[in-house]
Specification:
single chain; mainly alpha; two-stranded antiparallel ribbon; globular
Amino acid sequence: MVLSRDAERDDAAPSARGRLTRWLSGVLLVLLSFLLVEVVLEAWVQTLFSTTTVDHAANRTIEDLPPWPKQVKNAVYLILLAITALVVVISNRWRDFTTKADIAVVVLGVILALAGLTNGSDLSLTAQAGYVYLRGVIVFYAWRAARPGKKQIRWVLTPVAVLVVLNAVVALLQFLFGMNAYLLLGWNNMTWANINRAHAFMDHPNHLGHFLTIALMGLLCWFVTKEKVGWKWWLGFGFLALAMSATQSRESALGFLGAAIVIAIIRRGKYAVIAVATALVLVFSVGQVAISDENRAELERRLGGVLSALWLPSGAEDDEFCVETNPNCDKDKGIPEREVRVLYAQQGVKLFFERPVLGYGIGQFGGIAAYTADPKWYQDTRFGPEGFQLYGSNEKQVDSFWLHLLVETGLLGVVAYLTWIFFLAWPLLRSSWGDRRERWKQHRAGPTTLWGIAVIVFAGLVAVLSPSLEDPVFPALLFTVLGISWVMLSRAQQQEPVAVTSTGTAETAVSTDTDEPTARRTDDEK
């Protein structure tokens, strides 16, 4: 099969359609760069423009955040979607978007809609919840539609790299100087400052931990493909690892460990480089706990809460399990302090077995869409005689994405989501492991391919303990890396040997497997 029908045309001057495609692709890259900066700074900008009121009756301070930063972000997402569709139509590249991953995400969208519409979610709520689940995909398709080269990718990511360094510097300052460093940036909520967890320009330490860890994984994937890495690069890696440890995002450290193991298996070499990088991340993370009384006390409290939740599970509060011999017991209430993530999981598993096929419907349980539609979603009697028990938590979302997906969409939704993730990873895995054909060796296990695989592993792991795959920050970062990985793999496939047909015409062949990103040459690429 030829690269595309356009390859058969004479090398003429770019047509008007080609020029328009190039211009729209440039607009896509500008919007992508802006979006990445926006999601990193959104929470901080909201805080700077917030208004604060005091509720004297409740003896608390209420922070009223302006909605316009989120509105700008949503507008950018929708504009990206529209321009992406326009580029695909104008360049006649719709076949490039019929891979197995593309089919899988359509199937997933159908199942999400079915789960909502058959379980009491109206059309508006279903659309809103589906958008939250899948908005990151818009970024993925925008990258694939624009198909930038290395120089353009560096241009888009330069502001993001600046933000990585800036957030790392601020995180270390917050760790060193405490509350004053938070107040200097304008933060009003001192929840994280009180336990010495840095979050720089983001509103949650885990968000910053995810952001810095994605950068660390990118560096590691580049390190393992280089013959030699200079000491300055290692110094930069150590600096980012130290900053990430200041967030005390334990899920980020564990996610990096899991991703590093997968990189080692796929790369089949550079084990010393991977071991040193992993040791830096883990040693700094453990070191933060060792030198910080606040971090150590918080970790002890959380671990004790996990044990207490296993010892006294959700629903057993009235039983005779909690006695004064249990050191975690509150003598006044007779109930120990328990980790809500474990309590939520215990309740969620019970709910799943009651509705195992399509769950309770998207926008109904534990997500930001459910909270927006009804801040008291947890009082729904379908979740129990007294609703879903939050156990005093004031979080708007259930902390585990996988639990949220399981309860809202049932087994069908989880299987569809995992299938889609598999097909996102499969082309990268296949090219990394190599192929019997000699031509595959030239781009096997490249840095961007490894980076794409690493972020998929990381995303799956951190989603166990956080709503990362549907939060305001992580999806845009995740699908940026995946989009770059697919684009670079597609361009690598384009560099195939030229075969001469029986008619004497030179044709460039590419793989026609539908589970691989294909490279098509359009008017704008001539």
